From TrEMBL:
Organism of this sequence: Vogesella alkaliphila
Database matches in Pfam families: EamA (PF00892)
Lineage: Bacteria, Pseudomonadati, Pseudomonadota, Betaproteobacteria, Neisseriales
Keywords: Cell membrane, Membrane, Transmembrane, Transmembrane helix
PANTHER family: EAMA DOMAIN-CONTAINING PROTEIN, OS03G0707200 PROTEIN-RELATED
Name of protein: Membrane protein
TM segment ranges: 21-39, 45-63, 75-92, 98-117, 129-148, 160-181, 188-208, 214-236
Entry keyword annotation includes Magnesium: no
Domain EamA, first and last residues per copy: 18-145, 157-287
Keyword match Membrane: yes
Compartments it resides in: Cell membrane
Record's bilayer topology term: Multi-pass membrane protein
Amino acid sequence: MSTIALSAAPPHRSWLPDLSLVGVTLIWGGTFLAVQTALQWSGAFAFVGMRFAVAALLALLLCRRQLAGLNRTELLGGVFIGVILYFSYNLQTLGLGHIASSTSAFLTGLYVPLVPLLQWGLFRQRPGWLAWAGVALAFAGLLLLAGVDGLSIRLGLGEWLTIAATVTIALEICLLSRFAAGCNAGRMALVQLATVALLSLATAPLAGEAPPQWQPLLLVSVLALGAATALIQIVMNWAQKTVPATRATIIYAMEPVWGGLIGWLAGEAMSAGKVGGAALIVASVLLSQLSAHKATHAPA
């Protein structure tokens, strides 16, 4: 009697992690103005420290019942990624004190091609051709969003600080995908946030920063950005359990698109180049989802 082998149905893939990361980029795109405003009354390290302290307290409230399960991987991985976050946030903030925001945005966008290269070099995970095509589209879109001025860069202190921040951002994305699987997102995020807060607040007096000048807008910025940071970090730790680093990077490239849209709604002009750049980034995200769909439905 012959038997007929039935191929298993392809596993159902949830879009929620990807959509959650799109939501993260929306929040990122709306935070620049708040940071820029807050730095009028606070030094960079003090502001980052206060912002992450609020975020850590909120994360503690959210996952307090799960703390008993904190394990060695979550603790050590959280501290390691937290140290990298400390450098990325503070180096980028310090760099903004020396260069234009458009130059900073362009240089920060270099993490898009860096992530797949780091994945390949550190973890021997080579992205497929669709993923590379998505990276290329996203980077081309970032170039258009930066504008012609963004391509004329002299490497001074601000530029080097921002490039260093960009490398740490790429490393964080890679490590999140590496450590997140099997870890509790809330506990990992709490350790990361607390690490950044403690290191930043300890660095502020060593860097010679004056105490913050407490103003209503500074308090609102600290509380609002602290809440946003807690949400962002928990979502990233959860979503990157299943979203590979390269695909997450392409989605993260949506940040300047939301920033440009918010600026346009606030009355800023949008050139044809910026509209084209935004369109390329959106296309890159759609291409990355096509890549994920093909990977999920590939025959075993």
